[in-house]
Amino acid sequence: MNIRLFIIFIFLSVFISSFSCSTGSNRSRKPAIRIDIESAHKKITCGDDITVGISVKLKDGELKETKLFVDSVLLTSDTKADFSYTIKKFENIGKHTLKAVAVKSDGVEGVYYKVFEVLSDIVPEKYSYELVQSYPHNQTSFTEGLEIHNGFLYESTGENGKSNLLKTNLKTGKTIQSVKLADKYFGEGITIFNNRIYQLTYKTQVGFVYNLENMALVDSFRFESAEGWGMTHDDKNLIMDDGTNVLTYINPTTYKIVKKLQVYDNTNPLVYLNELEYSDGFIYANIWTTDTIVKIDPKTGKVISKINLEGILTMSNSTKHVDVLNGIAIDPVTKKMYVTGKLFPKLFEIKLVKKD
Predict the structure, then answer these.
(1) Is 128 left (phi over 0), alpha (psi -120 to 50) or beta?
(2) pLDDT tens for residues 127-149?
(3) pLDDT-based confidence at 22, cuts 50/70/90?
């Protein structure tokens, strides 16, 4: 490269660089936004007034307006850089998202998100139990789902290569009908609805549908959750969980999600929801790895009561290995409640006793 070309190259480089810096400095900057949240309690509780403070900082230009949303629903808008808005008596428990969108007069906008959590305002009632009667239970059954229908016990068992759908004699524990799942499937929760048995699997995101009369496979479906755990139903929809604190309602015909419900007590989200049972307008759920069953209001997701079943396994006098409590079945006719667990030798009929 001769000296003349080199000088031209240097000149062009300096010119382009200075032009870029010049245009860059004139580029409109996004507004910076801050969201602050206050309530009467340290942790926001259902029914609290929630005051949201918005502060917008501009490095250039003028602010046109700022819009405030909660869960994508517009709450308010304002032209001032600093303002506040109070959400009166916020009723929905669980995690929610605030979004503030600040727009400048030239159209450039800044967006900021803030997640907040709302606890239940109900202190759950405490229950224990009385053992009414015990029945034989196959101790090789890794229980994942349990149902009572027309006096028979229906059970879904887990573990790859050992998963089954079983119909058994409640009093004797003897198997009447059975369906073995393919080895790649790990059986999970079941529910009986409209003369069909619906069954989840663990990590394959597949559910199976059987004819109730002969337990013949009639359909299958895919679900959105990464894992399938417990299952039940109300008078319209299937209800499943995935080991979190979220209940997912599914249309029993299209298998599309209808809604999701977050479950909380007055201190925390109730994670590890496992086997489910719906009875008299409430949902009962095992909490995985514990001896606790919770009773949930399906209208709100609030935990109404907690049932402590500590010590129930010792009543079986078993010396063999057992896993965790898992399995709730409430007879829709007699209202009797039955519980068992993974590899438990007994099925227990219990009566709930309120603690003072």
Answers:
(1) beta
(2) 999 999 999 999 999 999 999 99
(3) very low
The residue type found at 296 is I
Q: Which two three-digit tokens encode residue 124?
A: 């759950």
Contact 232, 278 (CB under 8 A): yes
List b or e across 184-216, with b for residues whose CB sees 16 or more CB atoms inside 10 angstroms.
ebbbbbbbbbeeebbbbbbebebbbbbebeebe
With cut-offs at 50, 70 and 90, classify the pLDDT of residue 321: confident
125-354, what's its fold?
Answer: Methylamine Dehydrogenase; Chain H (2.130.10)
pLDDT at 220 over 70: yes
**Region of residue 195 (phi > 0: left; psi between -120 and 50: alpha; otherwise: beta):** left
CATH of domain 32-118: 2.60.40.10
32-118 and 125-354 agree in CATH topology:
no
Tell me the domain boundaries of the chain. 32-118, 125-354
